[in-house]
Amino acid sequence: xxxxxxxxxxxxxxxxxxxxxxxxxxTAGQAIPLDRRYGLLHGPAALDTETEGWRLPSDFxxxxxxxxxxxxxxxxxxxxxxxxxxxxxxxxxxxxLDQPMGRTLLEQFFAAYLAxxxxxxxxxxxxQHGAFGNSEEPSVTLLNLASLRDLEERxxxxxxxxxxMRANLLVDGIDPWAERxxxxxxxxxxxxxxxxxEALDCTPGNDVNPDSGVADLSLPNILERGLGHSQxxxxxxxxxxxxxxxxxxxxxxx
Length: 254
What we know:
16% helix, globular
């Protein structure tokens, strides 16, 4: 069976909506361009203006602890660096992430929307190098849609939206869980080359319904009961840059 890349997805602001891309260019040692480029700090982390580079995921508002972020629909305009926020289809805020006033407008919206969750004023920041991923090493994540269907049909016994997994690369055309044999191996995806580093455990953020913003599943527990582990995503590093596009073959090398 041949694996095919069926979707490319990036998340410009950590914890918020993803964007589907028809194609993109990968660079060795980097994440997908603009993936997790921005993040919304909270509490003491928002007051820390000296730390540079990667930060711990716990410094940010994320779906793991702030499910209601999923009830927002965010759109990122790459040309203007504008973030547009909608709720129930209605625009509720907009601001440019590359301008102080734009960030202030967005921070004020999030302060009101997330009031009572964490004290203090949220602060939007940009990663100067790399991305604010869950790993300090810039990475991409892969999801085998056949494994997700097996989870739905045989284990969870209910639909599981792939958006819950917040993966960068969605792959189809191979057997369920066959991707676990890719760990430690090299893959070609279009013109790029990836090295699969590890499988990732599901987190509470994966339990959040991407439409309602409610944590209505317990995927780590469901997977543990059904499979003896809670892993469904793979993390990979880009070791050879190149263009990837939806429809490209995904091929493990010998």
